[in-house]
Amino acid sequence: MDTRVRIRLRPVTDTRAPCCDVTVGYITRGIVLDQEQWLEFMIRPDQGSSVDITVRHRGKTEAEYQTLQALAITIEEIEINGIADPRFVWQGQFHPEYPHWEPDRGALDTHYLGFNGTWRLTITIPAYTWMHQILGLGWIYD
User: Fold this and answer.
1) Is the pTM of this model over 0.85?
2) Which DSSP category does 108 fall into?
3) Which of 10, 16, 65, 119 is the most buried (most CB within 10 A)?
4) What class does CATH assign to 3-134?
């Protein structure tokens, strides 16, 4: 089933642009996020399968952590087949790679990627069924 996924990312930075890898299903794009931008992916997953949407923040150095420089990525919006809702972003979880001096707090329910690490949202296909459930639109009959 053809599924179009768009994701809007915004950099938070004092100095240089953050780097990330964005993956939707089997397509990955590495980007230097120097301004807010939309990324678009067209995938053809099988019905009944799951698709991972990931944003991997990478390249933040130990020196940047220690000097408290702002270098982060925010996931502003996710659009699936032309439909967007804030609850789509809220369904994702961020799995930070904490610096050695920071206690591991596990996965975070956030769209702010301040540490290196991977934010992940898993949707099921057909995406409209997944959206129906996430948005609480009522029963789905098989």
Assistant:
1) yes
2) B
3) 119
4) mainly beta
Closest-CA residue to 24 (of 135, 121, 126, 134): 121
Residue found by looking up tokens 């996965």 in the block: 107
Cα 46 from Cα 107, distance rounded (Å): 29
Strands 3-13 and 112-113: unpaired
Q: Which two tokens stand for residue 25?
A: 């299903």
Structure tokens at 129: 């069924």
Partners of 31 in beta bridges: 20
Q: Which residues of the chain have pLDDT under 70?
A: 141-142
Residues counted in the chain:
142
Instruction: Calculate Rg over the CA atoms of the chain.
Output: 16
What is the rounded distance in angstroms from the CA atom of residue 1 to the CA atom of residue 131?
Answer: 15
Tokens of 100: 């050695």
CB 75 within 8 A of CB 92: yes
Any bridge partners for residue 13, and if so which?
A: 71
Q: E strands within 3-132?
A: 3-13, 19-24, 27-32, 37-43, 50-58, 71-80, 83-84, 93-96, 112-113, 117-124
